[in-house]
């Protein structure tokens, strides 16, 4: 797997590179946002490890820009413990985060967990059609279409959507969603789920203020409000 590491601390770059290389990955390094964009545009990158605090662009800005064209998995590195900082990264499309200082083994485990989540087997050539085709989910292709146009979702957003869409009308608590979406910390704040739901609604709902698909059940959690029929492509 081709992994891009973006961090302005050379010691961290070298340590992560050593562990990832030993694990069989090809590593690309960038010390700032400019280098990160250059590598991302010139190489086939499968995974990004991205520090929030960089000398030119912030990790948030890089994440936001990449999400305009790609759903490549992104794990944020942060020395900041502020909840708002973490939520901001997730709102911009990051799949997970890890706080500094961290163990390289923990980072490897996070990467493995995210990839395992992305590789979960889904029924081949299946599509879920909702609302007369307004929303179509292609589970095996990890794609979502809204009005026949592909919508870029993060892997966490896609997992949340398919978990709820697979059981329409069932109410999921935030705790249940945290447990089902592998890669998110079990101790993560409830607002982490809320942030992902907010982003997801903005991408699939005609009016995110009046959601049709992902409904809030006050005091209980969320549910997928539309039943579907499974078809084959």
Description:
With 233 residues, this protein is of the alpha/beta class. It folds into two domains: 2-118, Response regulator (Rossmann fold), CATH 3.40.50.2300; 126-232, Arc Repressor Mutant, subunit A, CATH 1.10.10.10. The protein is 38% helix and 23% strand. The protein has eight helices and 13 strands. A five-stranded parallel beta sheet has the order 2-1-3-4-5, with helices on both faces. The protein has a five-stranded antiparallel beta sheet with strand order 9-8-7-6-13, with no helix packed on it. α4 runs parallel beside α8 (190-204). The two termini are 29 Å apart. The model is unreliable at 121-125 (pLDDT under 50).
CATH topology of the largest domain: Rossmann fold
Number of domains: 2
Q: Write down the Rg.
A: 18 Å
Strand content: 15-25%
Structural class: alpha/beta
Q: State mean pLDDT (0 to 100 scale).
A: 87
Number of helices: 8
CATH architectural designation of the largest domain: 3-Layer(aba) Sandwich
Question: In this structure, how is the largest beta sheet organized?
Answer: 5 strands, parallel
Apparent shape: globular
Q: How many DSSP E strands?
A: 13
Q: Which residues form runs of ≥5 with pLDDT under 50?
A: 121-125
- Which strand order does the major sheet show? 2-1-3-4-5
Q: In CATH's first tier, which class of the largest domain applies?
A: Alpha Beta
Classified in CATH, the superfamily of the largest domain is Response regulator
Element order, helices and strands?
Answer: EHEHEHEHEHEEEEHEHHEEE
